[in-house]
Structures are given as structure tokens and as C-alpha cells.
Design brief:
Blueprint: E1 7-15, E2 23-33, E3 38-48, H1 55-64, H2 70-83, H3 98-105
Antiparallel strand pairs: 1-2, 2-3
Amino acid sequence: QTSCANYKRASFWISLNNIGIPYAVIASLDLMWTARKTSITPSLEVKRVVNWNAPVFKLLGDIEWNRMDFEDARTSITQVFESGLASPVDVSPNGQSLLEVSTALHA
């Protein structure tokens, strides 16, 4: 088992949203080492970028400003996810997950 001191991550984020492609590419390189071994793990992720005016962000705003109670919000967000207009793994134009955006609204 390794400690956090033996782990480093470097990542690069590029959003293609500015050129009309609603996706972002995240390239990462993880480096982990112990006294016995060293591991370098590359990764490449593609995430859908959802614009700030998307229905899911409008819902988060309605929740933030208390224009919607919890049950209505839960039902509405579930409908948005089921319709394919948003996904729990989507990111905002600045790279934040929906959970991060929601948490920032309530901070």
C-alpha cells in the first residue's frame, strides 16, 4: 500500500466546445512509486461538455434559488438524465462536474 506522498498526477484538459464540438479531452499521466516498484499509467478520457444554459444547469439554479422543492427537483433531474439531455458524468464549460457545480452553488 502506498501513501499519497508516493503518487503524482499530471493532466491536461482541452475543451472542443469552442469549435462547436461538445466534448472535452482529458489526458493524464499518473506516477506511483514504492521502494519495490514504480508505475506510470497514462489515461485519455472524453467527456461531454454541457453549456451553462442547458436544462440541467437551469434546474440547479432553480434549486439554488428555492424555486423548486426537493421532490420536484429530483423528478426533473431524473427526467433530464433519462431523456439524454444530460448525464451525471457531464462537465460544465470550465470542466466542473455537475456535482461540483451543485456543491459550489450551496457553499
